[in-house]
Amino acid sequence: MPPPIAYKETPDQHWMHLALDQAQQGVGLTSPNPPVGAVIVAQEKVIGRGYHHRAGEPHAEVEAIRDAQKTHPKLLRGATIYVTLEPCSTHGRTGPCTEAIKAAGIKRVVFGAYDPNPSHREQSRNILLLAGIEVTAGVLEEECRAIIRPFSKWITTGIPYVIAKAGQSLDGRITRPAGESSLITNDAARAHGRRLRMRVDAIIVGAETVRKDNPQLTLRDGSAGSGKVQPWRVVMTRSGDLPQHAHLFTDEFKDRTVIMNDKSLPDALAILGKHGVVSVLIEGGGIILGQAFREKVVDEVYWYIAPRLCGGGRPSIAGPALPDSIELKDVELRTMGDNVCFHGFPVWPETGAQV
Ligand code: AOF
Ligand code: ZN
Known about the structure:
Domain CMP/dCMP-type deaminase: 10-125
Function: Converts 2,5-diamino-6-(ribosylamino)-4(3h)-pyrimidinone 5'-phosphate into 5-amino-6-(ribosylamino)-2,4(1h,3h)-pyrimidinedione 5'-phosphate.
CATH topology of the largest domain: Dihydrofolate Reductase, subunit A
Largest sheet: 8 strands, mixed
Strand order of the largest sheet: 9-8-7-10-6-11-13-12
Bound molecules: ligand AOF, zinc ion
Binding site for Zn(2+): 59, 88, 97
Binding site for NADP(+): 209, 213
Family: In the N-terminal section; belongs to the cytidine and deoxycytidylate deaminase family. In the C-terminal section; belongs to the HTP reductase family.
């Protein structure tokens, strides 16, 4: 007889992974709300699933309850709901999920992360307990928190979460010798970098990048039909000297381009945050990336490196030396053909990791 199957995870963790898969489908689409997923389980099978599609629309719990009502109405009463985020408990754009859970006759709530939103944080447990519903908090908490990292920073500080990205040669250049193509990294690395745009509400570039590269900063690579709106395209400039014929000012998304003063990135980010921008991607070039790291505004880094030596040229991080070198934590390396993607999270000495 074969040995019994050894479970790698508990049943609660197993179902929470499925809720995380649901949440993943909303990443980049729900701003200024967090992406959240839920599954409802009865008799050891999923009877309903759902995720928060966009702000103003039903929350994940309500989507999952409606799904179960359609497909397994008899099993819903007494079922367990797994939700990646603590259910909300007050009226916002939509009604409180705690009420929807009670009304559906659900008997157990398992959630992953506490809601960092001060209006909901740690509110739901008592409400549910008093209604006779069992509550388990913190299942796969780390994963459930990771998926809402941008929301957590923005809702608690008002400042958008910042991802910095660069594609460079092995010797740290973002330009090749005169007369050569301007491409540094390979197709796979560039496509991967463009997909980061799906996750953010705004893309920031420096004026020099607009003058030299004339980028489009648009969503491509199968993002059509995802419901994702074109992220704001923010040009940081002090001089205001920008080519008026550039794609950013003439293409079909020209109304999604804004110009801001780069005197202080933290101030510019605070303005964006006030307008509901939860996350931004800084795509370069070296001057704005240098400023972002000197001003310590970066939360996450994607660095694409190609096996090519260019010498001279523009560096991926320009300007004065950093006051301290910056170490990345939780580093993941991924090869893309002969290119490498470095992914990690800066550790800022005074504060530790920000979120
Ligand atoms: C949940 N489930 O799927 C999400 C939650 O304005 P509203 O009504 O959409 O509420 C937004 C707040 O609700 C948001 O700031 C966050 O605290 C929480 N998001 N909560 O129970 C969900 N997306
Ligand atoms: Zn809710």
